[in-house]
Amino acid sequence: MKSTKKPQRQxxxxxxxxxxxxxAQTQLVEAMASKGIQVTQATVARxxxxxxxxxxxxxxxxxxxxxxxxxxxxxxxxxxxxxxLGEWTIEVKYSANLVVLRTPPGSAHVVASALDRSxxxxxxxxxxxxxxxxxxxxxxxxxxxVVKYLKELAGL
Amino acid sequence: MKSTKKPQRQxxxxxxxxxxxxxAQTQLVEAMASKGIQVTQATVARxxxxxxxxxxxxxxxxxxxxxxxxxxxxxxxxxxxxxxLGEWTIEVKYSANLVVLRTPPGSAHVVASALDRSxxxxxxxxxxxxxxxxxxxxxxxxxxxVVKYLKELAGL
DNA sequence: ATCCAACTTGCATTATTATTCTTTATAATG
DNA sequence: CATTATAAAGAATAATAATGCAAGTTGGAT
Lengths: 156, 156
Fold this sequence. Notes:
Shape of chain A: elongated
Radius of gyration of chain A: 23 Å
Low-confidence stretches of chain A: none
Distance between the termini of chain A: 59 Å
Number of strands of chain A: 6
Oligomer: homodimer
Number of helices of chain A: 6
Largest sheet of chain A: 4 strands, antiparallel
CATH architecture of the largest domain in chain A: 2-Layer Sandwich
């Protein structure tokens, strides 16, 4: 069954989870059936993945689906990077296109991981020792902005 | 058994999901074991719930845990409300402490649901008909701000 | 000290979600 | 058309997560 139906179905799905508090895929199967669209849980699972829906924790302990097309991953990694840098950055120095970031002993890998995961523009890669991280930037110009960005996030 | 360990365990849990890409609770059980903290999947599940961790969809299709204490619910409902109002509000009128919002036939309940879920300050409650929503505000003063807010969101 | 109530946690089980495998339908191509 | 390729979706199943229950623990209050 090639579909003219799929887009409409996913649209309804979105509407359903936006306007109701849905906490299981079987609920969606039923809700959609009542709207005249009959599908199986398997299809709902795939649709939810495609529209990027996730389950969030409700205050009352029940979890509900939401669509939230926020650049979530992005936002959160930056938040995280800020926390990490703020907590563990001792100093930021540089030379040419290299940036050297110092941390407390043993913490370099944690910070480097956060840096890698945040994908900073202009950064080619990082190498972490025990208390030092070497950050390789594309060129001197990029290095300037990278250093500025790092210091800002670190609160230096 | 041991209760002095719980806070530390949850802290480690947080760190683990922040610095790695974890996609299943069993992974966490193993990771924690390698850090010297031995727990079962059941405990991890409960801890994740307590710290509010959720699973988000990675671009590559794999889902990873994240802690993100975003005012997510808040943000999204306002976003959603804006979308809904923008799409279905025909006009906003009022009288004393009552606001009357008109929508296309059959859409009133959708809009009312969005309104209810966004919990607007000063609104006591709503009643939805087929194409009309009656919004009861606390008093005339509140009504003024509610009307302004609604029109703004609706783009009127 | 003894008891009680509120917590924690593991185990076992259930509930929920993701995926594999297969079938069918639609489109594309010669 | 016939044929092949591709996308979709269901059924069954595997994988993952949540939970009921019972067994400790702890920190008071009596």
